[in-house]
Specification:
With about 160 residues, the protein is mainly α. It contains 5 helices and no strands. The protein has one domain. It is elongated and about 65 Å long. The N and C termini lie far apart (about 65 Å).
């Protein structure tokens, strides 16, 4: 199998896995909303906040720290300067760490999917190991920040806006 087929095949697998992870989180969110609307909405808020922060932070880093992708060594001109850091890895690991607050078994399942996404990023020649490592670190840090921000908003909502009964 040649390099371009590896690139296309493993990129497709990465995209499918992150889609599965997002659909799994959506399922968990709807289940949580069914149990308790308020906590379900804060659960959803946490994931949207994480997605937005990770997406824009990684976009900023990709723009300001251009890095050639490994595939560009085989096919010059193909996705040249947007390797660092891995957006797929950052999003996937951030979602996994947010699930740690919900359940250990969901965290483990999501973490395994995240590891496969990281491996497929390497196998597809889309990212260097350093890109994956920084994607993991960004995912972890942003998940912790989102967790704290959502708790802050929740406390603000409960103390300031929720009607007293």
């Amino acid at each position: 199998m040649d390099v371009l087929k590896f690139y296309l095949y493993f990129n497709f697998l990465r995209d499918i896995l992150i889609l599965i992870q997002i659909l799994f989180i959506a399922y968990l969110n709807f289940r949580k909303i069914k149990e308790d609307v308020e906590s379900g909405l804060f659960f959803l808020f946490k994931f949207f906040l994480t997605f937005i922060i990770v997406f824009f932070l990684v976009s900023y880093l990709k723009t300001n720290f251009p890095e050639v992708r490994p595939i560009s060594h085989y096919f010059p001109g193909l996705e040249e300067n947007d390797s660092f850091p891995s957006r797929h890895t950052a999003l996937s690991f951030s979602f996994s760490f947010l699930l740690l607050d919900l359940s250990l078994k969901y965290f483990i399942l999501s973490f395994v999917i995240s590891i496969f996404i990281a491996i497929f990023s390497l196998l597809s020649f889309s990212h260097w190991p350093l890109d994956i490592l920084f994607g993991f670190l960004i995912g972890f840090i942003i998940a912790m920040i989102s967790q704290e921000l959502s708790y802050l908003f929740h406390r603000l909502y409960v103390h300031k806006f929720k009607p007293k009964t």
